[in-house]
Specification:
Chain lengths: 117, 105
């Protein structure tokens, strides 16, 4: 059974960089695709991007200029960095594992990140 | 960019059938999946590859995809099925529908 756990600061100041880590247990980070997804309070889901094969990435075009997703295979983790944040980046951030197709079969519990001074 | 459109809300009486649609250009040519999200919880996959149910998902959940519309059908809807439902597909990147709030009256 794969488990994912997000970690990182719950409060980030405007214009700074949001950094989160997802720790994976019960499965190898070196296989499958791994994504970050976010959900602003009271709103829908927005895919941020994925990483696979040790470092190949694909990002949401609307966020691409500010996003970096990377993998730490030694710790079975992958990470998200989102630069130049504003209040619009306030959301619950989820990490998730892709299944054999385009779907997400395992999700983390999510972590709320608030952008505020 | 590709868009998936869902009705904001659907209401159903207990025991009846609920249908939630997801529309997109030539959607039948793409695999569609569906997630259930209850208040304060992470999304849960209920349908993938248009029609397949993950292990542990009740048989009352089914999916279809034809033309420009994919449909999630919940037969014999129960109070526990009240939740937000999201469709998702792939079009050079991951795309989510806006979500549908299912109310079981």
């Amino acid at each position: 059974q794969v488990q994912l756990q997000e970690s990182g600061p719950g409060l980030v100041k405007p214009s700074e960089t949001l950094s989160l880590t997802c720790t994976v247990s019960g499965g190898s980070i070196s296989t499958h695709y791994w994504s970050w997804i976010r959900q602003p309070p009271g709103k829908g889901l927005e895919w941020i991007g994925y990483v696979y094969n040790g470092g190949t990435t694909n990002y949401n075009p609307s966020l691409k200029s500010r996003v970096t997703i990377s993998v730490d295979t030694s710790n079975n983790q992958f990470s998200l960095k989102l630069t130049s944040v504003t209040a619009a980046d306030t959301a619950v951030y989820y990490c998730a594992k892709h299944g054999v197709s385009v779907h997400f079969d395992y999700w983390g519990q999510g972590t709320l990140v608030t952008v505020s001074s | 960019s590709y868009e998936l459109t869902q009705p904001p809300s659907v209401s159903v009486s207990p025991g009846q059938t609920a249908s939630i649609t997801c529309s997109g250009d030539n959607l039948a040519k793409k695999y569609v999946c569906w997630y259930q999200q209850k208040s304060g919880q992470s999304p849960v996959l209920v349908i993938y590859q248009d029609t397949k149910r993950p292990s542990g998902i009740p048989e009352r959940f089914s999916g279809s995809n034809s033309g420009n519309t994919a449909t999630l059908t919940i037969s014999g809807t129960q109070a526990m099925d009240e939740a937000d439902y999201y469709c998702q597909a792939w079009d050079s990147s991951v795309v989510f529908g806006g979500g549908t709030k299912l109310t079981v009256l």
